Every structure is written in structure tokens, then in C-alpha cells.
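REQUEST
  id: r-88c1
  op: predict_structure
  target: DeoR family transcriptional regulator
  payload:
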Amino acid sequence: MTPPTLDARERQILEQVLRCGFAGIDDLAQRFDVTPQTIRRSVNRLCEQGLLRRVHGGVDSPRHGNLPYPRRQILNLDAKRRIANAVAAFIPDGASVSIGIGTTPAQVAVALRAHSRLRVITNSLNVATALGGSPGIEVTIAGGPLRPTDLDVVGSGAVSCFSAFKTDFAVFGVGGIDRDGTLLDFDVAEVATRQAMADNCRTSLLVADASKFGRPAIARGGRLGDADHLFIDGPVPTDYLGALDADRPRVQVAASAETPARQTGETCS
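RESPONSE
  id: r-88c1
  status: 200
  body:
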């Protein structure tokens, strides 16, 4: 599936709804300083592509689970790339790295392509494809049933694969981060796979853009303080500072781009 092409306003509307759960037409019109009719045209296009769902007074997410991978690829892309570059600068040549599923870990793989003497273990075909052909990188991929939309393997096959290695680093994302610091995903098999990565590495790197804070997902497993490092695109939201332990995770804020992908300081009404 080819990622849909959205303009800047449509991307920001989509990101706000995924972050907040709902957005009202009048609130969106005020935020973007356009008429409600203009917002409705943008919203209708997003709904026609299955990215959002019209409800009374506004729009919400069309499903309780995660959006399909190609649609997630376009969300917060600048933030994901900045996070990925920070992770790539953190990981030295000659390291062993397990890389998990999701669009941010896939961007980390892209950022690692210039590394040398790297050994990568992954359960994501997107990661393996990004690194394939890089002369200084050896890739091992987990076996098992392939999820057709996300092109990854989760569950027992991936758990067995990650458990067979002890890597220097593990790079993984999450579906969401609850206010009490609980890490959330959309499937218990995703949780088990992520925990296998964390249990079988020397240093764990959680990668998450700002939209993951407060994003609902049904499967729980692990806490924010379990990760050694948290790579994010901005400061940890104030409401979540209490979920950080005294020394874990160490928060690594990616360098700001000249033109951010979305506005900051927004609130969900």
C-alpha cells in the first residue's frame, strides 16, 4: 500500500486526532484560521482515505487498533527522523543491535545505513529492507507468520529469535505511554516481543515521538522507567514527569529541525 499524500494542514489534523482522540470542526477552524467549510473539505478527504471518521461535531479515529503501517509512515515524519539521527549518533560502529517494529525504529534503520561492522537482529521486514545491501551491516531476521500490513513478525517466533542473542543495544517503540508510565501496545504479542528485546540487551533505547504520550492502546507491558534511554523529539510532557524514575530512563531530546513538522504546545480540549 502506498502512503497517502497529504498536505501540511491535513497531516496536522490527523496528528491532532490521533493524539487527542477527537477534534471539533470549529476548534480546527479556529486553530488554522480558516472557515469551517475549508476544514470540512480537509476532513472529508481524510475520511475518504479511511484515516479519520466523521462523528457529530467533528472527527475521531476510525478504529481502536493501530493505523495501517503505510498511513503511520507519514505522521510526525520529521520528528521520527530527528529521533533516528540521534539514536544513530548514539550507537557506535561495531555494535550489535536488535531493532523492533514500527515506523520510528524503521527510520533508525535508515539512519544506521552508513555504520560499519554492525550486526542487526530484527523482526521487521521494513528494517531488513532499509539495511539490505549495506556492506558494513549483517542482518538476521526473525522467522514466523508475517503480518501482511505491517510486514513484521511478533509472538513466539520473534521472542525466540531475540532470546537467542545478547545485543549491545535494543531499539524499540511503543503504541502509547500512559500517564502512570505504563508502556502500551496494540497486541499482547507485540508486548511479549518488545520485552524479549529489552530482556536480552545491555542497553535499551525506547524511541517515541510526542504523540505517544497519552495515546491509548489496549495491551500493557513494562514501564517507562524500565528503559535505559528515552529518545524523544521534545521535552517530556509535564504531566508525565512523575512517571520517570530518578535515573531511568535517561532522556535524550533529538536536535530541533529548522522547520518542525507540527506545532508544539498544543492541548487537547
